Every structure is written in C-alpha cells, then in structure tokens.
Amino acid sequence: MMLRPLLAACCLLLPSLAHALNLGAIRPDEVAIWMAPQDGGPAIVQHRADVPMNPASTMKLLTTLSALELLAPDYRWRTELLADARPRGDTLDGPLYWKGGGDPHFDRNDLAALARDLRGRGIRHLAGDVVLDKQRFARTGSADDFASDSDKAFAVPPDALLAHLKVVWTTLFVQPDGVRVALDPPLDGLKVDNRLTVSQQANCEGGVKRYASLSAQGDTLRLEGALPAGCDGGKLFAPVWEHDAYQAAMFAALWREAGGSLAGQVRRGLTPANAVTLASVSSPTLAEVVRDINKYSNNTMARQLFLTLGAEFAQEGDVLRDGEAAVRRWATQRKLALPGLQLENGSGLSRRERISAAGLGALLQAGANSPYAPEFMASLPIAARDGTLRRRFVGQPVEARFKTGSLNDVRALAGYVKAVDGRRYALVVLINSPRASELTPAMDALVAGLIRHPGRLEAEP
C-alpha cells in the first residue's frame, strides 16, 4: 500500500507506534479525523483534530445532546387556541388567538385536532379574526448564504407557529386518463399546474422522483414528467409561501373541514393576559423529536430546538443569543473543551458554524456517558439501515451509528462504531473541500478501514 509524502504523515498524531497514512482519494489537508474509546479515554487516532472545521449537520449533535440534558427527554411543546370573550351560542365574536410554543413537530393533524376540540365546545362561527401569536420566538436568526435555496425544504426557516414544516405533500394517482394529484394539507389559494403524463413503463424503479418533479412558483405548484403505472400513490413535497400565508390558508382549510366558518382575517398579534384556553395540543416528547432531527437531519426542527433553549433559558430576551448562551453554559458545566466553536443557528445549515473533530469527539463521549445516552445514541442513523445512512455501507461489515453532514463543500460523519475486535469507539471524520461531494466513497472506505483496524489510519486504495 503506497504511503503519502512524509509531510502528510507528520499530520497524523498517534499515542503509540506510527502507522501508515493512507487516505485514498482524500488529501491530508482536506480532512480531520478523531477516534477514541466510546466511553472515554484519549484518542487513538488524531489527524488535524484540533482544527475548527465546518461540520455541516453533525453540529446537530451539540444542539440535541445539550437539549436532552437541559430540558429532559420528556419535555413537550404546547400549542393553544385561546379567546378573551365567551362564545355566544355557536359564535365566537372576538378574536381567536393561535398561540405558538415553537413546536418543531406541529402538523396538519395537530391543527385538525385543535379545530375538532373547538367545534366540540359548540363553536361553529368565528366572527372575529384569527390572531397568530408568535411572541415565543421574537427573532429566528439566519442561515446566511442560502438565499438561493429558499425554495428547498431543507432551508425552511424556523417559526414559533411552524406548521407542517411549511410544505405541501402531493400524492400522485396514475389513472387510465392521466395522473390525478391530491394535496395535503389542502391550502386555499394554491393552484396545481399538472403537466404529468402516463408513461409506457410499468415499474417505478428508482422511485417517483426519478420520473416526476415538483416545484412551487408563487401560488402554483407545477408537476412535470412521465409517470410509470408502478409509481401510483407516490408522493412528492415542496415548501410554499411564507409562514403567515401558509398558516392562514391551512387554518382556513382545516377549520372549514371541521364544519366551521370564518368571517374575519388571519393576522399577527399578541394574546391578552386574560385570554382563556379553549383547545390545546402537546407535541411528541423531546426524545422523539431528537430522533427525527438526527435520523433525517431536519434543519428546521433543529433550529426550532435551538431557539427553544433560548426561550426556556432566557437571559437577554433574544432567543437566538440566549439559545447559544445556554448551549455554551451547558458545555462549560460538562467540562467540554470546544475551542474554535462558532454557532449561527445550531443546525449546521451554515457557512459560518465551526467545531473541531476533537470537540465533536468529546461531545460523543459525553453523550455515551449521559443519563440520556439511550435516547441520544438511538437518535443516530444506523449504517445501511435507516435515516440518512440507509444507502451507505450497504453490504459491508460496518456496525455503526453516525450523524451525517452534507453541504456543497462539506462531508461529515460523527458517531459510534463497533470495531471487529468487539470494542466500541467514537469516531469523527470531517471533510472541508471544494471536492467534498466526490469524496463520500473515500470517506466511507476510510471509516471501514478504521473499524477493521482501530488505531490505524488506513483506507482501501
């Protein structure tokens, strides 16, 4: 196996004997690596491990572990419908206040449940306005340099009344006379430009995204492509509108679906102190939300969680700054050295966020020793099985749980592995390079090599 130049080999720091440095297609200056026993102890492999790197979505590990320990796994968010006037028969004359708690998981089923409970109180007519109360998150922060991705689901910004992740799902039904499209949730004012045709192909090999595309353009969803019969029932989704417009349309549709009528407008405002709760719904537990965040690398939900920390541990009254302060205080209390840590929104959807491989490694060791280790570790994708690792390491003897990270110039893995000798390790690999998108196979080969031979930095050529 060919060695890289001596200068590159000097970048590798091992506590014992020197080993060959073979990174395959990865250049030494493009990668940082850290590997140590899962439950604690010094690193057995370090390569540029103290260099602050862009971690992409592996930054979610910091947000989710700190939240589990600060809020506890049974924490839940609450969303309410309130009024400051008593109903008159089946009519509510005054405003109805829809008060958001920042729930990352609130969806159309939750809003439908609120509407049903309101109807259960005998209220049918809303004569006043519906007021969107978003004071929980007075500021939501940024994801700088992602403006060109504003139409992508991964870039949906947080919101105190986040609803259904601000996306519309389309279900495609292949019929003899064409393709019928059903929307969920149904949104008033959203039109469908259905240009789908039925192809002669029978099977849906590769999935529906291979044959059909969905894009949102203003008030119109456009669907294009030729759909095989085997894609019947396939689903596509896309974010639409701004939060306020989405929430207004979703409320109007689901309130009407529940048999209610609305005479007023949907607008922003604040809930009066004397308002009374008419209906409420609680989110799944934080442990369940963390699982969704890490398994599927959901940026919006991670940002909601980061802001929730700021709301729960308020100091300055700025949820974004207070969220970062809460995370940093927690890290200090846990005696986690995170030199060079930079935070923007806690999700990794950032060009500015930084953390070192050693910092992520220390975080993983803390997670393995946390009172909530089962919840935290179970939230990570399983190699070749689920989440963002479902199609990676397939057919390989790799027993691992990794949080993945991916941006244009970033590829990252951080998690737990079981080596062939039966020992368990925490492992971090961060690649920052314009070639990052080409290097996923080399990264996976590097990981597989470290699992086969812990302490030796080797990859298949």
From TrEMBL:
One example of a Gene Ontology biological process annotation? peptidoglycan metabolic process
Task: Provide the coiled-coil residue spans.
Answer: none
> What does UniProt give as the signal peptide span?
1-20
Q: Does the keyword Lyase apply?
A: no
Which key words tag this protein in UniProt? Carboxypeptidase, Hydrolase, Protease, Signal
Domain of life where this protein originates: Bacteria
Q: What Pfam families has UniProt attached to this entry?
A: Peptidase_S13
Recorded hits in InterPro entries, A to Z, give: Beta-lactam/transpept-like (IPR012338), Peptidase_S13 (IPR000667)
Single annotated GO MF: serine-type carboxypeptidase activity
Q: Which Gene3D superfamilies match?
A: D-Ala-D-Ala carboxypeptidase C, peptidase S13, DD-peptidase/beta-lactamase superfamily
PANTHER family in the record: D-ALANYL-D-ALANINE CARBOXYPEPTIDASE, PENICILLIN-SENSITIVE CARBOXYPEPTIDASE A
Q: Which family does it belong to?
A: Belongs to the peptidase S13 family.
* Record-linked NCBIfam families: PBP4
What protein name does the entry list?
A: D-alanyl-D-alanine carboxypeptidase/D-alanyl-D-alanine-endopeptidase (Penicillin-binding protein 4)
Q: Which organism is it from?
A: Rivihabitans pingtungensis
